[in-house]
Amino acid sequence: MQSIYDIEVKTIEGKTIKMSEYKNKVLLIVNVASFCGFTSQYEGLEKLYKKYKTKDFVVLGFPCNQFMNQEPEDEQKIKEFCSLTYDVTFPMFSKVEVNGENTHDLYKLLKQEASGVLGTEAIKWNFTKFLVNKQGKIVERFAPSTTPESLEKQIENLL
């Protein structure tokens, strides 16, 4: 089976990297959107990142436009929005699909390893969160309504 570290992703600047760049770090992977009811969670995600980044914790934001056209902008505008509105400094990536036939390999793996409510794999909405331990194992999946702040204890336990 493929490891999370074997998967390639594209940064919001367009550079292809391997997830292995995040080996030995606790990851919080989130599909994000600029025009979602949960968009204000960028603030909490950034606070977590700033608080724990020196302890090998990283938030990874993957914009997604599959839910009611809530991320229609291109990468440059997404980057500007995140920076200007929420002072986002955690790594952001190019837009991905999290469901359907064009699901990004990362999200295929995340959904296989951590199913949602009643065992469903499909991502239901933006700001679904996946917590990954330092060994690359997907530990838990959280609903969009789960606030970043409420994950602090789980993150600390993995650090």
Please explain how this structure is put together.
- The chain is α+β, with helices and mostly antiparallel strands and 159 residues long.
- The protein has one domain: Glutaredoxin.
- The protein is built from four helices and six strands.
- A four-stranded mixed beta sheet has the order 4-3-5-6, with helices on one face.
- The relative contact order is 0.22.
Give a brief outline of the structure:
Keywords: Oxidoreductase, Peroxidase. The chain is α+β, with helices and mostly antiparallel strands and 159 residues long.
Biggest β-sheet: strands ordered side by side in the sheet: 4-3-5-6
Instruction: Using the alpha-carbon principal axes, give the shape.
Output: globular
Note the total helix count.
4
Residue fraction in strands: 15-25%
End-to-end Cα distance? 25 Å
> How would you sum up the major sheet?
4 strands, mixed
CATH class reads Alpha Beta
Structural domains: how many? 1
